[in-house]
Amino acid sequence: MAERFEIVERAILSMLEGKKYATLRDILSTMNPSDVAGLFDGLEDKQIPLMYRLLPKELAAETFVEMDPEAQELLIRGFSDNELKEVLDELYVDDAADLVEEMPANVVKRILKNADPEMRKSINQILRYPEYSAGSIMTTEFVSLRPHMTVEEAILRIRRQGVDKETIYTCYVLAKDRKLIGLVTVKDLLLAEDDEMTIEELMITNMIFVNTMTDQEDVARMLSKYNFLAMPVVDGEGRMVGIVTFDDALDVMEEEATEDMEIMGGMTPSEKPYLRSSAFDLFKNRIPWLMLMMVSATFTGLIMTAFEDALAAQIALSAFIPMLMGTGGNSGSQSSVTVIRGLSLNELDFSDIGVILWKEIRTALMCGIALAVVCFGKIWLVDHMLMGNENITLMVDLVVCCALCVTVVVAKIVGCLLPMAAKAVKLDPAVMASPFISTIVDALSLLVYFLFAKTLLHI
Amino acid sequence: MAERFEIVERAILSMLEGKKYATLRDILSTMNPSDVAGLFDGLEDKQIPLMYRLLPKELAAETFVEMDPEAQELLIRGFSDNELKEVLDELYVDDAADLVEEMPANVVKRILKNADPEMRKSINQILRYPEYSAGSIMTTEFVSLRPHMTVEEAILRIRRQGVDKETIYTCYVLAKDRKLIGLVTVKDLLLAEDDEMTIEELMITNMIFVNTMTDQEDVARMLSKYNFLAMPVVDGEGRMVGIVTFDDALDVMEEEATEDMEIMGGMTPSEKPYLRSSAFDLFKNRIPWLMLMMVSATFTGLIMTAFEDALAAQIALSAFIPMLMGTGGNSGSQSSVTVIRGLSLNELDFSDIGVILWKEIRTALMCGIALAVVCFGKIWLVDHMLMGNENITLMVDLVVCCALCVTVVVAKIVGCLLPMAAKAVKLDPAVMASPFISTIVDALSLLVYFLFAKTLLHI
After folding, report:
1. Do B265 and A226 touch (CB under 8 A)?
2. Is a pLDDT exceeding 60 seen at residue B4?
3. What is the CA radius of gyration of chain B?
């Protein structure tokens, strides 16, 4: 699929360079807007307006929405006021609001000047809601019906209003004060046995809706849970103000998963795609966490220094420090990743803490004992007998394996408790993932190791 | 929202225990199937069939689909053949196929016996496709139209066939041999200016479709990219066999993100939710990776042993080992998480390897230098002056900071190259995430450290 697309891409570029505009136009008009937008990525700046002007009007607007902000800005700067108006007229309000958010101030000014008054009002309304809220991603264009309408009247209304609506398939029934009282789907309308039935008789009234301030992630999860095409958004007074459609929910879920992974990898999340981020952007997102974790490693340093004498007396002990810390870190991150994802999917809740802890402790004991047994054998057979390291006595072997088992249990307990604790104090549980856990587990595993060494080896 | 739901839940449970069945029935019939299914989680086994029989027929079937496999099995075992038939009749084919996949053999036998012949055929067809393929998640029920139909005839056909179809909003135009030749949406049909227009005139012919064998993750990404309600699935001969709807795509994207996170956290991915997994299930998913990484830490042990003399001569050096390995591991995992996610979202490709490497090296140099400078100052001020550790000389400080800077660069290079390499040999890049990277980076950072120590401290 991807390969076939590259061939098309090369053919189109060579046509553009060969000025075969008529053929190019014919080919472009058979393509899907998302794919046409992809083509613009490969163009030089001066080719962008050239190819854009080849697109039929409707395809041009649909393609515009899918393009990179850089290309959009370049095009807008080159547009006449009339051209800009034409594009804006074709945009859905939520896409227009996204555009305004991405563009620099002087471009925004031109956009708002050329938008028709109603759209300008809607854009301003959407932009007033906090980022990541349902209000900020909704569109204000939806089909509204009145309860006393008949099926026939409703279908007529959809036919008249439908062109400009992002979805016509779910229609919302509003009372006089714009309060949301029910919904009907086009499927219900089409399959209704009698055209004279009223919307009131047909509509579903046990409404599921969100508030303008609901977090976008919750909106996406609810949409997915209820398999809705669109989720209605109401304001503080229960008046319906917009809808969030399933395609926006898909985008939100992808964004949120990426954000969680970035935080779990010890980075400040970024909305810029990797290839459009500069090395300095990456540096800014990564250095605070590295700095924090480097400085907090001072504790492990202090522990190492405190047990310097023990290490000097039994230099063989130091060989197992990386293995112990590594296994501890991995065990902890297994638990934390599991719990973080469970929390974010709402599969786990703070009230499950007892069940989780008990399950993790049993799992940890099984893992710890299995690892300790294998490790004991490995150290004795490989390090002691095969490598002939006389410093590794049976007691040293025992110290390492006891410490390993306890470390795994401690790591798993820390790994499951920290994200829960973060959730309890309304922090993002993802910040408690592997890098953070590792730092704590590193320190704990060293402590456990040296305490076993002191006790069992009497040093 | 969640709290309000818990209150409803408690009220319903106490009504069930108080045998207030009529009231309970009234309340349940106003609820959404997903929420009703959630209620069953809190019930004891013997209460499940009791409450299920209170549900109105249609709601019962819709609720059944959303329930846990355990509760479904329990219900089916208690159903009479007639009851089972009624539920099956209401199910969409893809949900029925999911059910068959989840149930034990004797339950499957009863399901297939009671399904009508057409559904049985469709279920068997879907089950023949490999797991995670488009064929295995599609439904075979969609609205098909013929090119010569008029708009009016098409709407009539939708009205007649629509009840049983999972979506009616996208209709597929098939030629006589069932080859897919175009699509029309219900929006197009409703907004068509002339009822006598033929489907052929109205339909879109530049079709985007997938094959039965396309990976489900690719299907979900394409659906999201093109904002489709459903993606048509064709067989090897181009004949249309089914559709994948957007709600399945939402589920697939959530599953795949969870799977990636689990692999990146060093676990075998599992489809069972955490609360339904036993401690032994968790043990089985986690122990292979821990074992693998523990054994591979033998290398770090060997390196430590090889440089035992250097460590004994300059015991202060050992204090910084955890910090160096930790910072190296974190730097590496930042790069690997970024690259893995980029690859999985198709934002990055193998051909970008040069760009990525160059960007990571520049980022790594900035991070490495910043960390080294801060670390140098911190060691001198805190460890040397404040703690009065005389063993930490300026040269030791220099060794640590040079090693730190080089380790960060090495870690970031390894972190971005390994997932790309995995992709190149068709492995899942996610296996190359933090635990795996840490093991390699641990070994490399120790090597770098000891080489600097040998050279600069002449030991």
Report:
1. no
2. no
3. 30
Share of chain A above pLDDT 90, in %: 31
A27 vs A29: CA distance, rounded Å: 5
- Burial class, B397, CB count within 10 angstroms (exposed 0-12 / middle 13-18 / buried 19+): buried
Residue range B407-425, pLDDT digits in tens: 999 999 999 999 999 888 8
Contact B371 A253 (CB under 8 A): no
Which residues lie across from A184 on neighbouring strands?
A171
Least CB–CB distance from A321: residue in B257, B321, B327: B321
> Dihedrals φ, ψ of A141, to 5°?
-95, 110
Query: Are A265 and B408 inside 8 Å of each other by CB?
Result: no
Does domain A144-254 bear CATH number 3.40.50.880? no
* DSSP classification of residue B204: B
pTM to 2 decimals? 0.82
Supply the pLDDT for residue A5. 62
Q: How do residues B341-380 score in pLDDT, each as one tens digit? A: 999 888 888 888 999 999 999 999 999 999 999 999 999 9
| Residue in A208, A316, A370 closest to B32 by CB | A208
The 10s digit of each residue's pLDDT in B192-221 is 888 889 999 999 888 899 999 999 999 998
Instruction: Provide CB contacts within 8 A for A256, sequence distance 6+.
Output: A216, A217, A220, A344
**Interchain CB distance below 8 Å, A308 and B318:** yes
Domain A2-132: which topology? MgtE N-terminal fold (1.25.60)
Tell me the per-residue pLDDT of A224-257, one tens digit each, with 9 for 90 and over.
Answer: 888 889 999 999 888 999 999 988 888 898 888 9
- The CATH class given to the B2-133 domain equals mainly alpha
Which residue's entry shows tokens 């209709």?
B171
Closest chain B residue by Cα to residue A277: B359
**H or E segment and range at residue B62:** helix B57-66
Nearest to B326 among A168, A264, A442 (CB): A442
A326-344 confidence digits (pLDDT tens): 899 889 989 999 999 999 8
* ipTM of the prediction greater than 0.85, yes or no: no
- Among B26, B153, B227, the strongest candidate for a mutation testing the A interface, having the largest count of A CBs within 10 A, is B227
Domain boundaries, given as residue ranges, for chain A = 2-132, 144-254, 297-457
Cα–Cα distance measured from residue A46 to residue A53, given in angstroms and rounded to the nearest whole number: 12
Read off the tokens for B378: 């911190």
Determine the length of chain A.
Answer: 459
CA distance to partner chain A, nearest, from residue B303 (Å): 8
Class of domain B297-457: mainly alpha
